[in-house]
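Standup notes
- DV: blocked on the single-chain target, sequence here:
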Amino acid sequence: MPNLKHSSTNVELARKCLDLTRDIADPGASCWDPEAVGYALQELSQVLLERTGTGDRIFEPVPADEIADLAALCVELRWVDRSTQDLCVGHRCN
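- DV (later): unblocked, structure below
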């Protein structure tokens, strides 16, 4: 039987992680400095990638105008955004 206190704590921690991701992404999204934009995007990407068990540093912060394949990343993020919104609507998250 799962430990309900541990499960509840994990859900709260997951929400906090999403809050922090939003808080980190928001300034980067509104900044005009390519270095700050690139740093925010790549550091978030690195941290999230490391959570999959990959500890190797794959991303080095570079200015956003030097990052390749951002169009593909936007397509994937839009898909995740729609999927998350659909899931939340289905579960009355909002």
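- Follow-up: The chain has a mean pLDDT of 79.
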